[in-house]
Amino acid sequence: MLPDFFTRRAFAGRLVAFLQTAGIALAMPSREATQSETVGIKKPDYEGKSASEKLLVTPLVKYNGVIYIAGQGAHAHDNGEALPMDIDNHIKKVMENVKILVEAGGGTMGSILQITVYLAKIEDFDGMNKVFKTYFPRGGPARTTVAVANLPGNSLVEINCIAPVTKEQG
Question: DSSP label at 118?
Fold first, then answer.
């Protein structure tokens, strides 16, 4: 029983109870902060401006010097153009979206650390690699590629990735 008394969790619980009793807890930040109040988390849009808090999924989240890019399909950030149903066009569209987002977050294509690729057809693996080489001529990031049954918006590919912030946006 005595070792449980000295755990961090037990100590933190006793400290919070003491501070609440002492009336000091009012000066401490609430655990129920809203998204806009959460310190250090930024959610820029494709242009690098703050994304609407009403979005169900934010395309880009920056936290603690790291850029997290949500799954980008060929339909993401759609400009209304009909996209031909081939892997070259879909990969190029997705990679351009990734490039826009990573740069809006303060990174570069060369700074991407990890990419996860979801292909609607594993037969498109070689076509994907062909296009990837144009975006990563000096070697790409760590990558996982899996085939899935379906992707939203008739996309043949969806990609998410993680990169460090290499330059702060103004």
Answer: E
Rounded to an integer, what distance in angstroms lies between the CA atom of residue 112 and that of residue 117? 13
3-state class (DSSP) for residue 13:
helix
Q: Is residue 24 pLDDT above 50, yes or no?
A: no
Taking the C-alpha atoms of residue 43 and residue 60, their distance in angstroms, rounded to an integer, is 6
d(CA 100, CA 29): 35
134: number of CA atoms within 13 Å, CB side?
A: 10
Spatial distance between the Cα atoms of 146 and 91, rounded to a whole number of angstroms: 14
Query: pTM here?
Result: 0.72
Task: Say which residues have a Cβ less than 8 Å from residue 19's Cβ, sequence separation at least 6.
Answer: 25, 28
The predicted-structure confidence for 65-100, as pLDDT tens digits, reads as follows 999 999 999 986 666 677 889 999 999 999 999 999
Q: Where do the CATH 3.30.1330.40 domains begin and end in the chain?
A: 36-164
CATH number of 36-164: 3.30.1330.40
